[in-house]
Amino acid sequence: MENSVINHLPTDFTTNRLHVFDDALKASDYVARQIAALIRRRQLEGREVVLGLATGSTPKGVYEELVRMHRYDGLSFENVITFNLDEYYPIEPHDEQSYTWFMNQYLFSHVNINPHNIHIPHVTGPENHVKNYCDEYENKIIAKGGIDLQLLGIGRNGHIGFNEPGSCFDSVTRLINLHPVTRNDAQVYFGGIENVPKQAVSIGMSTISQARNILLLALGPAKSEIIKQAIDGPITPDVPASILQSLPQAQYIFDKNAAALL
Predict the structure, then answer these.
(1) What secondary structure does DSSP assign to 16-40, as a single string?
(2) Whole-angstrom distance between the N-terminal and C-terminal Cα of the chain?
(3) In sequence order, what are the beta bridge partners of 114?
(4) Catalytic residues, which ones?
(5) What is the Cα gyration radius of the chain?
(6) Per-residue pLDDT reduced to its tens digit, 16-35
(7) Is residue 6 part of a domain?
(8) Residue 86, beta-bridge partner list
(9) Opening angle at CA 111, ends 110 and 115, nearest 5
(10) Where residue 171 sits, what CATH number does that domain have?
(11) CA distance linking residue 98 with residue 213, whole number of Å
(12) Is residue 214, in this structure, part of any structural domain at all?
């Protein structure tokens, strides 16, 4: 994306790739509508759709709207295949801090998705098993033809998924050491920094970049500084989300607080 510092953004400002909404609800609804439209289009074509999904506080509103659409607007998930971006390691799937628990809590247990179509990169056991597991997860994505639409959030250090600063742009699914900023931000959910896992499994930068559609959602003033760096700074592994500047299929969806420094 070309350098595009925009001062005094009006309410619900929209360009080809940048969408800024007055509040988080409108931004989340926009993303949910994009996802729902793709699901329905593929249903009309008699085809499956592969969604890459994110966790954390940012996409909760998106999932709430998708659940509402399922309950009241007839949105079916029968043709949907999902691959989640990441998961802590080690962690048990029934742990309330796990992303497996999160996805069931906020989306999967409320819609008619086939459980066999749900993929979350959760692995237990010794670390020497993780490499094979990551390769298998990557191969499952490839076998499904890649990701049709990837939903992303962004960390305060610029990570997407758990691709922390310094992640190579050609990386694939792998075990990652979590950045101190990431662990510090997570401690509120774990009851202290000492309980936050030091590693996670994440799909890679290359895997994300090959998605046919990418939606980066950011909400709130805490994301404004990193959003400015990711959009208007150099493309660098030091800010992993900056790679989206070079990807024409990527859209940025913000509320006005996240976009405050643009």
Answers:
(1) SSEEEESSHHHHHHHHHHHHHHHHH
(2) 13
(3) none
(4) 86, 157, 159, 164
(5) 17
(6) 899 999 999 999 999 999 99
(7) no
(8) 202
(9) 105
(10) 3.40.50.1360
(11) 26
(12) yes
List, in sequence order, every beta strand (DSSP E) within the chain.
13-14, 18-21, 49-53, 80-84, 86-89, 118-119, 149-152, 174-177, 199-202, 213-218, 250-255
> What is the pLDDT at residue 6?
45
pTM of the entire predicted model: 0.94
- DSSP for 184-228, written as a single string: HHHHHHHTSGGGS-SEEEE--HHHHHT-SEEEEEE-SGGGHHHHH
Q: Per the domain annotation, does 153 fall within a domain?
A: yes
Q: pLDDT below 70 — which residues of the chain?
A: 1-14
Contact between 155 and 184 (Cβ < 8 Å)? no
**Percent of the chain at pLDDT exceeding 90:** 91
pLDDT of residue 241: 98
Pair of tokens at residue 199 = 């590693």
**Which residues, other chains included, contact 136 with Cβ-Cβ below 8 Å and sequence gap of 6+?**
none
| pLDDT in the model for residue 7 | 45
Q: Which residues span the domain enclosing 84? A: 16-255
Rounded to the nearest angstrom, the gap between the alpha carbon of residue 260 and the centroid of all alpha carbons in its chain is 22
Q: How many domains does the chain have?
A: 1
Q: Are 4 and 239 in contact (CB under 8 A)?
A: no
Q: Length of the chain, please?
A: 262
| Inter-CA distances, 197 with 50, 89, 103, 247, Å | 29, 6, 19, 32
Residue 9 in any domain: the answer is no
